[in-house]
């Protein structure tokens, strides 16, 4: 009896991307014009004032470029997840790495962080942006300073982080690194970053570089986070945003492949967070920590 041998389909020399081998995708009904954002009537005024400076008026938000994005697949995923979790929205902390003001030497990392926040907000996330002004330089003394405690509390609250830093002298800025240095790997049983999903972006003053996103990726690994495969790097950032008084609220990122890449990053970030979030407790269950607990228990018994 002849054995069954799998039939090998010869490659088509014209199919350079091997498209014939791709898996079929589900057809999703369009969600054009829809948003899963928190309603303006449900805003907590205190949280809005402290952490959502990116919000636009309702009319602008309904008609800007983000409202027109085709995000049907991820929006359906979010909608299904919210139904399963009784409306438990993905909690996102966004950090940026500059304290420049818009009316002087603009903080383009902040402007890019705002655009990322608006995309995530439309996708139903509870987004909060930390303002680094007033955060003390890292030391081993002032752990109870209000800004330090605020940052740590936000990280503990979050399901994922989005990091946006300028590139200065070929790497991330001190303003950004100071924020990460202020977040401990662990405080007792609390793990402020373990298992969180992590997205990264940078803005460049000149030609496109990837030094900063590469450094952010390494930082995320050290903080035991899961960094998405995609990343965003904006070259010549001073040319990539509209004027303050332009349409759609001003200071908006202009149409380009750079803007499209930011959208793809936020889309991937949300998808991975939904997949990972039900299993976050598994990522905090580490062999080394279990061993330490057993050794500690054994020492306690001997005393």
UniProtKB/TrEMBL annotation:
<dbReference type="Pfam" id="PF03358">
    <property type="entry name" value="FMN_red"/>
</dbReference>
<dbReference type="GO" id="GO:0016655">
    <property type="term" value="F:oxidoreductase activity, acting on NAD(P)H, quinone or similar compound as acceptor"/>
</dbReference>
<feature type="region of interest" description="Disordered">
    <location>
        <begin position="1"/>
        <end position="24"/>
    </location>
</feature>
<dbReference type="InterPro" id="IPR014063">
    <property type="entry name" value="Arsenate-R_ArsH"/>
</dbReference>
<feature type="domain" description="NADPH-dependent FMN reductase-like">
    <location>
        <begin position="90"/>
        <end position="238"/>
    </location>
</feature>
<feature type="compositionally biased region" description="Polar residues">
    <location>
        <begin position="14"/>
        <end position="23"/>
    </location>
</feature>
<protein>
    <recommendedName>
        <fullName>NADPH-dependent FMN reductase-like domain-containing protein</fullName>
    </recommendedName>
</protein>
<dbReference type="InterPro" id="IPR005025">
    <property type="entry name" value="FMN_Rdtase-like_dom"/>
</dbReference>
<dbReference type="InterPro" id="IPR029039">
    <property type="entry name" value="Flavoprotein-like_sf"/>
</dbReference>
């Amino acid at each position: 009896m002849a054995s069954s041998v799998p039939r090998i389909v010869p490659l088509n020399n014209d199919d350079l991307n091997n498209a014939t081998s791709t898996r079929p995708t589900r057809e999703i009904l369009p969600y054009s014009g829809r948003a899963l954002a928190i309603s303006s009537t449900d805003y907590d005024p205190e949280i809005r004032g402290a952490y959502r400076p990116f919000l636009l008026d309702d009319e602008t938000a309904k008609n800007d470029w983000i409202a027109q994005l085709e995000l049907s697949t991820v929006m359906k995923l979010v909608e299904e997840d919210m139904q399963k979790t009784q409306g438990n929205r993905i909690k996102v902390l966004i950090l940026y790495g500059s304290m420049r003001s818009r009316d002087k030497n603009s903080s383009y990392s902040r402007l890019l962080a705002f655009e990322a926040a608006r995309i995530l907000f439309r996708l139903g996330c509870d987004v909060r942006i930390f303002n680094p002004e007033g955060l003390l330089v890292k030391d081993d003394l002032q752990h109870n300073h209000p800004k330090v405690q605020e940052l740590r509390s936000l990280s503990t609250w979050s399901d994922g982080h989005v990091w946006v830093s300028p590139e200065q002298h070929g790497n991330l800025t001190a303003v950004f690194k100071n924020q990460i240095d202020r977040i401990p790997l662990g405080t007792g049983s609390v793990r402020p970053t373990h298992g969180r999903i992590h997205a990264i972006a940078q803005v460049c003053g000149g030609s496109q570089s990837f030094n900063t996103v590469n450094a952010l990726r390494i930082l995320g690994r050290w903080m035991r986070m899961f960094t998405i495969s995609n990343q965003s790097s904006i070259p010549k950032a001073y040319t990539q945003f509209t004027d303050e008084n332009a349409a759609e609220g001003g200071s908006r990122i202009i149409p380009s492949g750079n803007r499209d890449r930011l959208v793809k990053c936020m889309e991937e970030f949300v998808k991975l967070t939904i997949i990972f979030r039900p299993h976050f407790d598994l990522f905090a269950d580490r062999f080394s920590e279990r061993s330490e607990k057993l050794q500690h228990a054994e020492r306690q018994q001997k005393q």
